Amino acid sequence: NHPRRQRIVEVFEQAIGSGKPSIKANFWGYYASRLPVVAFDFTVGRHRDGPDDVLDDYEGTLIGDCWSGFQKIDVRSNSRITFAACWAHARRKIDECRGAFPIQVAKLESLIGMLYDIEDQIKDYSDADRLSRRQSLSRHVLGLLDDYMSSEAMSVPAVLPKSNLGQAAAYVRRHWEALNQFVDNPCIPLDNNDCEQLMKRVATGRKNWLFKGSLAAGERAANLMTIVGSAIRNDLDVHAYLDDVLRRVLADETDWAALSPHAWKAAHPESIRTYRQDERRQATDRKRVRRARRRKLSK
Q1: Under DSSP, is residue 116 helix (H, G, I), strand (E, B) or coil?
Q2: What are phi and psi of 236, to 5 degrees?
Q3: Which of 6, 68, 83, 275 has its CA 20 to 30 Å from the CA of residue 246?
Q4: Is 243 a residue whose pLDDT tops 80?
Q5: What is the mean pLDDT of residues 219-224?
Q6: Alpha carbons 62 and 73: distance in angstroms, whole number
């Protein structure tokens, strides 16, 4: 009675029929922007039925790269979900073209950098004030970006459609509406870098495990990574949290809400790693100084 039984059977039968000794499975990471939780999921393939299942009762905005499985998710969800594209992915595609098109890339990255500078300045604003600044300042920068994308510097023969910059520009144009979603919603971040950081744990894990012995093993790993990842996000001493929660579960406690990391954190302030909070503040301050220095030098 596995909820994804049909897809699992299809993948396994195809692998067995072709004589493959294993299949390539996938871990997926989900990072809630306004709740202190993360989630990992394990699927037997890179197909949209995984995210569709996880987001089955979700209503809100999904921000991510422009993977084909996220396209038309608003239609598949009957408009429950709005897709917003990630500017970090768009900038990365443009930055890869720096060697062949240094002038155009410098201009495009300068404009995208202005979007990030605005976000840096309004980070601590209220939702209403943040929306107001985005509607005025960010929309103006997006207009400049759109104008430059349509200028002679980005057209034939300066940039051919099949060149790497031509393809990067086509990516931005194709997903322009999704890339602009953040302007009309103060809760939408400019990128999904928080989730990208989350997936580094999966990449690190691949260095330690090459195979999962079974579907059940992969799902157990995803569950454990969810628990540990949520504890880390709440700046908890992971050992103390797991030790207490496992003991209480073995003692037949079933108040799952009280055992969640953010609820447990409130009841155990002694297990909060405050130095993690200090490290984040220091990193944020360093980033703001770098951006301020860059803005000053660009004037």
Answers
A1: helix
A2: -90, 155
A3: 275
A4: yes
A5: 93
A6: 9
Is the bond into 36 cis (omega within 30 degrees of 0)? no
CA distance 153 to 159: 7
Whole-number pLDDT of residue 299: 65
Q: What angle do CA 114, 166, 142 make, to 5 degrees?
A: 25
The DSSP call for residue 31 is E
Contact predicate 226/39, CB 8 Å: yes
Q: What is the mean pLDDT of residues 79-100?
A: 95
Which candidate, 91, 48, 50, places its Cα nearest to that of 71?
Answer: 48
With beta carbons less than 8 A apart as the criterion, state whether 133 and 125 touch.
yes
Burial class for 99, CB neighbours closer than 10 Å (0-12, 13-18, 19+): exposed
| Per-residue pLDDT, 258 | 93
Cα 71 from Cα 83, distance rounded (Å): 8
Query: Is pLDDT above 70 for 184?
Result: yes
CB 242 within 8 A of CB 227: yes
* pLDDT over threshold 80, residue 20: yes
Q: Is cis: bond before 189, omega within 30 of 0? A: no
Closest CA to 27 of 239, 234, 215: 215
Best CA proximity match to 265, nearest among 238, 234, 232: 234
Which pLDDT band holds residue 15 (cuts at 50, 70, 90)? very high
Q: Which helix (H) or strand (E) holds 9?
A: helix 5-17
> How many other β-carbons are positioned within 10 Å of the β-carbon of residue 162?
8
